[in-house]
């Protein structure tokens, strides 16, 4: 198969959909890889590394798109790319259709096959191509929080782990899923006192058996939250209710109860945030302060560490991409049934119920395409 990897052109996106190691796996298996000039540079992979792996460097985005039977990307195509996408081309990338009507309409018109990373879903409801980015954001939330707790940056001026003879910082984590767990590992590793709040008892049972002694779990409810925020130094928002906006667990009035210089990192900002006063910020201007409480709410945290994020993402995508290249998109589902859920639009038909419902457009079950080959 011919696999093409365009350079990401969305603002501040430095990730790339394929590493030189991935390119080598494809070429070794008899596939051709076309990668746009400098596509890997933002993640630290020069063109030469891809060439050494057997890939062909294409000078322009137009040429890159024109070469591919499968297009591998990170972010959804943006407007200038719409006209480059052809009928029957397989696009494997993050799309997030439900929040983007122009993109949905453009992909319907293109008659391409759109396989969305974010909806690839296993039987146990886990999302294997979203997990790596949650892991990155979770670990990073503590790194950022520790940094902003420094006085010159607006924080309380407390070192996360303290030193002998002083108490460590108190870290409160709302939600003990992927983000919350990774945040807890980082914060506890630095010596902080950590409390994870969740509503799932099975989840907290699991966490209490695997986490170190300086991590405690507690039931998430308003009573406990109001009590704990009074002396927390760093609060991390990591709640997710699948398919819904995050609930506001910390409301505006609660900020007054907090210590001045408390740092809030709301990782759930991309789902509306679990802190009422949270609004999306960017890496250029990541923080703002309300009532003496510092807010960090960057909606695309993994974008700041493209090297790690690219490797983490491609570790997860490559096995699927390889099967798609070897067998084609219909038969690839035999080995990886979770790909079924990944198809959102096929040859002009919306095959993902939630996207069809969002835009009140007709829905065709994906089985129509998968059973007719
Ligand atoms: N900002 C970023 O760059 C970035 C990157 C990756 C993920 N995220 C976001 O981070 C959030 C968390 O993602 P995740 O992968 O950890 O999700 P997850 O599903 O693994 O975990 C969510 C957890 O929240 C818990 N929860 C639900 N309601 C709760 C409540 N009322 N109180 C406390 N806990 C509650 C659930 O039981 C679950 O354990 C999502 O909104 C995700 O989109 C943001």
From TrEMBL:
Which reaction is the catalytic activity of this chain? Answer: L-alanine + NAD(+) + H2O = pyruvate + NH4(+) + NADH + H(+)
Q: Which UniProt keywords apply?
A: Magnesium, Metal-binding, NAD, Nucleotide-binding, Oxidoreductase
EC number(s) stated in the UniProt entry for this protein = 1.4.1.1
* Residues forming the catalytic site: 96 (proton donor/acceptor), 270 (proton donor/acceptor)
Q: Where does Mg(2+) bind?
A: 323
Broad class of enzyme this protein falls into: oxidoreductase
Q: What is the protein name for this chain?
A: Alanine dehydrogenase
Native organism: Cyclobacterium marinum (strain ATCC 25205 / DSM 745 / LMG 13164 / NCIMB 1802)
